[in-house]
Design goal:
With about 475 residues, the chain is of the alpha/beta class. Helix content is about 25%, strand content about 25%. The longest helix has 18 residues.
Length: about 475
């Protein structure tokens, strides 16, 4: 056997390097390379066996599912828990990951599955106290507190549970890996062992991962590639709403969301998130626009709020919560270049109400409408929703699933919409247009200049240019 040589692994992306450097060549992170002992390489490899090959054509049955009975959780997982699957759940500290997974373990236990909850961060007495507070003390869930992965694997081999939850992957360690718990080598080795166990024994394994200050799951990104499903638990501390979002799912749709509300009795599922996000919507105010969005497979209505104020500074501030700040800069540039509306000397604040994070390009038109409404100090009609993508030319592009957005708006009592034109006349003939829908009167917005003329007046009341 050849002598093992040290390697340097990036703590951000997991890339390996032959020597230390101040910056990772793969992901560009600074001071992220950690020295590890490389694997011993055998002098030669024995002959392998030929693999069986098959054709692409064939009838494969859908994977079996074990529903938990919690509709929002089952929705995000694609219909339920798949045996022999591995899930990775990430979220900010204190957001409610342990509460969610303890409730999930209890739900699966009551649904007939054997569930085992292993904590490496809390003592068993602390978890029992939480279970008692949540009313789960009598749930059929087995509990353990350990960090030695060998002991955990021995217990899983003996118990053979249907579901095993390990909180968290950063606390587990293997004595055969010469690194501290939470290091790149330990996290990668622990994830490999647990995923291998899940595939070998048919147990569904759920791993909890810490997140970095950028909101990404800490540790090497290779862990995300090893598991079948990656879920993020999101939410703002000042709001009771929590979003469980699937960013990767080999057994269901990605970008699906489940909405929960944090209460004194734990997390309660929200079956009508649109009504919840709009529940705090008051009287008509300038700078507020209701965006008809799509999250995964469900339409969700949410209020986008904008505030435009004069700035005493030479560089006005732009603050964004719940949306991409780079996209806001693009919308401001398009408004100035294509509609003659300059906000160069004004501070701009943008907020997505309810703590939801919106990444859909179809929110562009709602953001522009909120900005123009705040600038003109004129509220938008209260019963109107807005959606549409804005291009750099200023044109408003069609948004996918427009019918689903408008049906959700109509169901919640909205009667009007500022919407993009259909993709083509052929598309208009194939699908029912918004004008044909009872109760919804849609106004077609061709470009941002038309939107500005509608909200600021034909003569325009744009902010004066400062150049």
């Amino acid at each position: 056997m050849a002598r093992s040589a040290p390697v340097f692994t990036c703590a951000e992306c997991g890339a390996t390097h032959a020597k230390w450097a101040g910056r990772c060549d793969a992901c560009g992170a600074w001071n992220s390379l950690v020295e590890e002992t490389g694997p011993t390489t055998p002098a030669s490899l024995g002959p392998g066996r030929r693999l069986p090959l098959s054709d692409l054509e064939g009838e494969e049955p859908a994977p079996p599912r074990l529903p938990s009975g919690v509709g929002e959780l089952d929705r995000v997982m694609g219909g339920g828990l798949v045996p022999a699957s591995a899930l990775l759940v990430g979220g900010d500290p204190g957001i409610g990951k342990s509460t969610l997974l303890l409730q999930a373990a209890a739900a699966f236990g009551r649904a007939g599955a054997s569930a085992l909850y292993v904590s490496g961060e809390e003592a068993a007495s602390q978890i029992r106290m939480r279970a008692s507070r949540l009313g789960l003390a009598k749930a059929p869930v087995k509990l353990a507190a350990a960090t030695d992965l060998r002991d955990i694997l021995a217990t899983l081999e003996a118990e053979r549970p249907d579901l095993a939850i390990l909180d968290s992957i950063q606390t587990l360690w293997l004595s055969s890996v010469g690194s501290a718990p939470g290091s790149v080598a330990q996290v990668r080795a622990a994830a490999h062992e647990l995923v291998s166990f899940a595939k070998r024994r048919g147990t569904s394994v759920v791993l909890v991962g810490h997140v970095t200050k950028e909101g990404q799951i800490a540790g090497p990104r290779v862990v995300e590639h090893m598991v079948d499903t990656v879920l993020y638990f999101e939410g703002e501390r000042g709001h009771p709403f929590r979003i469980l979002r699937a960013v990767k799912n080999r057994f269901g749709p990605a970008d699906e969301i489940g909405v929960f509300e944090m209460t004194g009795r734990g997390l309660a599922q929200v079956e009508n998130p649109s009504a919840l996000f709009l529940s705090e919507r008051g009287r008509e105010t300038p700078g507020a626009a209701v965006f008809a969005g799509i999250e995964g497979t469900r339409p969700v209505l949410v209020e986008i709020q904008a505030l435009v104020a004069p700035s005493p500074m030479s560089t006005p501030r732009r603050a964004v919560v719940g949306w991409d700040s780079g996209r806001l800069a693009m919308i401001l540039a398009v408004l100035e270049a294509r509609a003659g509306v300059s906000l160069a000397g004004r501070e701009v604040y943008l907020n997505v109400a309810g703590g939801l994070r919106v990444a859909e390009p179809a929110a562009d038109l709602a953001v522009a409408a909120a900005l123009l409404s705040a600038l003109a100090e004129t509220p938008l009609p209260a019963e109107t929703v807005v959606f549409g993508e804005i291009s750099l030319s200023g044109a408003v592009r069609p948004a996918p699933q427009a019918d689903a957005r408008l049906r959700e708006a109509e169901r919640l009592g909205f009667t009007g919409a500022l919407a993009p034109p259909p993709a083509s006349s052929a598309a208009r003939r194939r699908a029912s247009t918004p004008e044909e829908k009872p109760g919804i009167k849609a106004t077609r917005i061709e470009d941002v200049a038309a939107l500005a003329a509608r909200l600021l007046g034909e003569g325009g009341a744009p902010a004066p240019r400062t150049d």
